[in-house]
Amino acid sequence: MVARRTDTDGRRAAVVAGVGSCLPARTVPNEELAARLDTSDAWIRSRTGIARRHVAAPGTATSDLAVGAGARALKSSGEPAVDAVLVATTTPDRPCPATAPLVAARLGMTGAAAHDVSAVCTGFVYALASAAGLILADVAERVLVIGAETFSTLLDPGDRSTSVIFGDGAGAVVLRSGTAGEPGALGPFDLGSDGESEALITVPAGGSRQRLSGVPPRPGEEFFTMSGKEVFRHAVRRMTGSAKAVLARAGWTAEDVDHMVGHQANSRITQHVAEGIGLPPQRCFSNIAEVGNTAAASIPLALDQAHAKGVLRPGQRVLLTAFGGGLTWGSTVLTWPRLDPS
Fold first, then answer.
1. pLDDT tens for each residue of 88-109
2. 2 domain-assigned
């Protein structure tokens, strides 16, 4: 294994300074879904690795979960405010305006820069890159980055292929200005997209294309759809390729990675990506069994839970990688810092 540097090289960098998460109180076990769908607990577990998921109660919005996660991340960082708030989400409170300004206001930061990031399940990694850019450009000293979803609002309750996979939740990190090489500093990013494959993960109705077509939406087109087998294939290939690319840019090998915290899409996808990178299964943190696929919230939610459980320890090298609709994908790396609990 390559000797680990603990010194800094003086270059400006975005540094993780706090983590937090928020889950709805209600959990939906596989047995509850099996009672109304043509499926079983064993079928769901074998194909996804999911045992239960959290679902937001009526009256709860994405912003509510985002505020909960953001407040805990701010507490963990030891500072009550930031200069900018970014919310990665596929399920904003409304099509207009963005959810981030409301979240910033509710956290007591009216006046801070705030905007949403839309890249579906890759949204958090894209938001991290955007936040790091604000810090590197000297636009902000501290940025709150939140991934928040109420994906249950997009699901056809009668569609077994999607209803068993997704859950609701939010996770957040606080980034501060620091120097490259110090614990918590985000390393290089690898980001990509393939718009020619947009139909593989989509909500057909509700946007300008459908509304301006002059054709009313067909029943069910307001729900999320996914071509499972094709998405599986693309996810494994793109996450593996992106992870390898970012490791090469960071000068790391697979042996240097203590933990991979990937988008929690499907336990089998995680296994295949780990094999492609050359990581043993025990280095891949997974919480999908308890929370399901929470889209843009999955990586920050997993980071907070792994930190709280003591799985992520100061000085360990961490790889983040994700894949989502668009198609989009992205990865980055960091050395885990010493953080207060959220």
1. 999 999 999 999 999 999 999 9
2. no
Q: Tell me: the pLDDT tens digits for 5-26? A: 334 567 999 999 999 999 999 9
35-74 pLDDT, tens digit per residue, is 889 899 999 999 999 999 999 999 999 999 999 999 999 9
Residues 88 and 211 occupy one common structural domain: no
Last residue of a domain, one of 179, 198, 222: 179
Are residues 197 and 65 part of one domain? no
Weakest-pLDDT range from 6-15, 30-39, 269-278, 318-327? 6-15
121 noted as active-site residue: yes
Q: Are residues 164 and 233 in the same domain?
A: no
pLDDT given at position 342: 79
Q: What is the pLDDT of residue 3?
A: 31
Question: Based on the structure, what is the number of domains in the chain?
Answer: 2
What mean pLDDT do residues 125-129 have? Answer: 98
Tally of residues, the chain: 342
Active site residue 266: no
Q: Which among 121, 259, 266, 307 is annotated as catalytic?
A: 121
Residue range(s) defining the domain that contains residue 166: 12-179
Identify the active-site residue in 263, 272, 287, 307: 263
Verify whether residue 22 is a known catalytic residue. Answer: no
